[in-house]
Amino acid sequence: MGKVHAEIDANLRSFIEAQHVFFVGTAPLDESGHVNVSPKGLDTLRVIGPQTVAYLDYVGSGAETIAHLRENGRIVIMLCAFEGPPKILRLHGRGEAFEPQDSEYGQLRGLFPAFPSGRTIIRITVHRISDSCGYGVPGYAYAGERTQLPDWAERKGAQGLADYQKEKNRASVDNLPALHWVEQAEA
């Protein structure tokens, strides 16, 4: 059944790379704050070391993960096998959000698809790697990536995306600060 792993080995890396969707969970320190779980896809998750992963975070309507990481760094990624043998993998760690103006963003950006541009790159230093059976996860057949996000980003253009982030990504639903560049632009 479940096992705790010391690192992301070749078998776990293969499992991670085969999944088309993953889920990100974060929470603020304030117990009255909102826990956030976000599904991610579009080929954005990369294993960059035995205890390090990163994903390209596209522009979205909220910025919970970014705000929670700025506040406390706690994050978990969960992957489920929807095809093939059942399995769930959780990567618990400390995350950092790098924005386009950060040197780390530029160093990592080449690992991901060129378009659409990312809002941030989330890098996670993983301190607990565990799997479980996944027997209760239904099987689904992968039908392909949706095109709505890349199409929307292309229609918005660079300025439109910047304006959208100023409006929607300044802070979390609990009013925790999110994107640094938006804060600086408003100062």
Task: Indicate the topology.
Blueprint: E1 3-5, H1 10-18, E2 22-26, E3 36-40, E4 45-49, E5 52-58, H2 64-71, E6 74-80, E7 88-98, H3 103-109, E8 118-132, H4 148-168, H5 180-186
Antiparallel strand pairs: 1-8, 2-3, 2-6, 4-5, 5-8, 6-7, 7-8
Record keyword descriptors for this entry.
Pnp Oxidase, Chain A, alpha+beta, 28% helix, 187 residues, eight-stranded antiparallel β-sheet
User: What percent strand?
Assistant: 25-35%
Number of helices: 5
Instruction: Enter the CATH topology name.
Output: Pnp Oxidase, Chain A
Largest sheet: 8 strands, antiparallel
Structural class, please? alpha+beta
User: If you compute it from the alpha carbons, what radius of gyration comes out, rounded to the nearest whole angstrom?
Assistant: 17 Å
On the 0-100 scale, what is the average pLDDT? 95
CATH architecture assignment: Roll
CATH superfamily assignment? Answer: Electron Transport, Fmn-binding Protein, Chain A
Q: Regarding CATH, which class?
A: Mainly Beta
Poorly predicted regions are: none
SSE order, one letter for each helix or strand? EHEEEEHEEHEHH
Q: Helix amount, in percent?
A: 25-40%
- The rough form would be described as globular
Strand tally: 8
Q: Span from first to last CA?
A: 52 Å
Domain unit count: 1
